[in-house]
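Translate structure to sequence.
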């Protein structure tokens, strides 16, 4: 392994970085993107400072990868469909809806033209409930004191 790293030239780092960026095109995580950028930066530093030992190059790559991934998670969070769904459900907090179904699969409340799962209290069909929280795409409800 030592011989492998000892014979690495700057262009090896650049190709490795490019390969990681290409892998990112298929992974959709941004994890490989920042490691690829770190490898390319290590290649540039290796070109500028050709006498840099392979241990320092590997250390530089590791530090750059960790720092860039942490910064990317903080400043460029990956948004998924689940995040959008949770945000859509959270918009209903505080609203009052009518229970239209209550069976072994759970209660459902009518929200506009659609039905949403609801949990959190004993519900009767026709009862008005107030949304107090969400759990993924399920509305957490309590009886609405004003309309019951």
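Result:
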């Amino acid at each position: 392994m030592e011989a492998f790293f000892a014979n690495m030239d700057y262009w090896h780092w650049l190709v490795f970085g490019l390969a990681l960026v290409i892998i990112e095109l298929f992974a959709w995580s941004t994890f490989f993107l920042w490691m690829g950028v770190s490898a390319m930066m290590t290649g540039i530093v290796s070109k500028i400072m050709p006498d840099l030992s392979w241990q320092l190059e590997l250390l530089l790559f590791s530090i750059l990868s960790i720092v860039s991934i942490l910064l990317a998670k903080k400043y460029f969070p990956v948004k998924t469909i689940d995040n959008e769904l949770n945000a859509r459900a959270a918009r209903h907090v505080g609203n009052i809806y009518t229970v239209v179904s209550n069976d072994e699969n759970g209660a459902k409340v009518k929200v506009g033209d659609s039905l949403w799962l609801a949990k959190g209290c004993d519900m009767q069909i026709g009862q008005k409930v107030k949304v107090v929280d969400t759990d993924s795409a399920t509305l957490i409800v309590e009886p609405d004191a004003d309309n019951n």
